[in-house]
Write a structure and sequence with these properties.
By secondary structure, the chain is of the alpha+beta class. The chain is 58% helix and 11% strand. The protein has 18 helices and ten strands. The protein starts with a helix and ends with a helix. The mean pLDDT is 83.
Length: 396
């Protein structure tokens, strides 16, 4: 009940102040009314700003600065933050609502109070008609400072909510929607999934996939948003945007719009090649690591290393595991690529040869059609095909 009466009370109080200003001709009533009017007009703009901040994961809202952390410790926010009133505590309770909704509510609350910190000085314009600039300035500063603790509280709490573990209630409601050799994919919400890796899967590899996925997001390539890393029951995972659609392999098998979908498939793969990156796993270093980890015979290992070294260096970004099972067709016909564990820097020919090899294991006819669209022949990339065969053998 209190939730509904507070805004009604504030509106009535604002109207009474405006009426009193006209009746008693006193500036204080109009000044307070102006402050309340700004408070009521601001939320729609704060909502738009919050939607942008959440969708783009803007750094200002999603990451505390180092000086902030020191400042919050110094003023002991943890000790007094719960003493301040909350409009509706359920909006900020991850046990009562989804984490996504709580984060959105926190960003919106922060934006409302942050904007009011500055807009509290707008009513100073009334001093042109009522004088009393000095007193109005003091009151504006008072109203502005009044909003600071609410901004601080939200900025202090948000990283803790973002990094909070998935609740038992969320775990019980998670629906399995996909399963592979190294991970399972569960539905978290209408627009998010979590890819949970096997317990024995190296965390270093998971962190690499997360970094790669975030990098792809900056490239504006059609791929799900990578939000954060999470741990559930001892399993490390990555929270992604929900890709809704069907695997393009099933579309290829149906032969429906085959040529158009194949063109789109190839174009999506080529979109990686527009980007260069020096600080990324190198395809030759990757090969040498495979040899070191799986070849015990020194003579064989030396031959493999010599063969790998014969290939040119490159800084082109490639997906590294681009095949029909890692590409989805959404309802609107657009494609989305997933799985960035093997993303690296390599010649485009290496990536194309790997895709050709993977497709060829299922359909030689389709593999040749793929190469034709990409503008290559098996002969023109034969050396890379041999390299891919070696890597696949060592990968097991």
């Amino acid at each position: 009940m209190k939730k509904n009466l507070v805004p009604i009370f504030l509106v009535i109080f604002m109207i009474l102040n405006i009426a009193a200003a006209f009746v008693f001709k006193h500036w204080i009533f109009m000044f307070v009314a102006a402050q309340l009017l700004i408070f009521h007009l601001l939320p729609p703009f704060a909502v738009l700003l919050s939607m942008l901040a959440y969708k783009k994961r803007l750094r200002f809202w999603f990451k505390q600065f180092e000086w902030e952390k020191k400042f919050y410790r110094k003023i002991k926010v943890k000790q007094w933050k719960n003493r301040f009133p909350t409009y509706d505590s359920k909006l900020f309770n991850i046990s009562a609502d989804s984490k996504e909704n709580v984060i959105k509510a926190m960003i919106q609350s922060e934006n409302v109070h942050l904007l009011l910190v500055f807009l509290s000085f707008v009513p100073l314009m009334l001093s042109k008609y009522y004088d009393h600039f000095g007193i109005m300035l003091i009151l504006s500063i008072f109203f502005s400072v009044l909003h600071f603790p609410f901004v601080i509280i939200q900025r202090y709490n948000l990283p803790r909510v973002i990094n909070a573990p998935i609740t038992r209630k969320q775990q019980q409601s998670m629906k399995l929607i996909g399963k592979g050799l190294t991970a399972e994919v569960f539905e978290l919400s209408e627009d998010k999934v979590i890819k949970l890796f096997n317990k024995d899967y190296p965390k270093q590899a998971i962190r690499r996939e997360f970094r790669n996925a975030r990098l792809v997001n900056t490239f504006k390539i059609n791929a799900p948003q990578a939000f954060e890393m999470k741990e559930v029951d001892g399993r490390c995972g990555i929270v992604y945007g929900y890709v809704k659609g069907q695997c393009i392999e099933s579309v290829f098998n149906s032969r429906v719009d085959l040529e158009r979908n194949l063109q789109a498939f190839c174009q999506l793969q080529k979109s990686f090649y527009n980007h260069k990156k020096l600080f990324m796993l190198d395809y030759k270093i990757y090969g040498r690591a495979l040899v070191a980890g799986s070849v015990s015979d020194k003579k064989d290992a030396a031959e493999y290393i010599k063969f790998i070294k014969s290939f040119p260096n490159a800084n082109t970004v490639v997906h590294g595991d681009f095949h029909p099972l890692n590409v989805f067709v959404e309802d609107d016909g657009s494609l989305q690529v997933i799985d960035f564990m093997n993303m690296m820097r390599a010649p485009a020919e290496y990536d194309i040869a790997r895709t050709y090899y993977l497709i060829g294991a299922v359909s030689a006819e389709f593999a040749e059609a793929y190469l034709s669209v990409m503008g290559y022949t098996a002969e023109s990339i034969s050396d890379y095909i041999e390299l891919v065969k070696l890597y696949r053998k060592l990968e097991g």
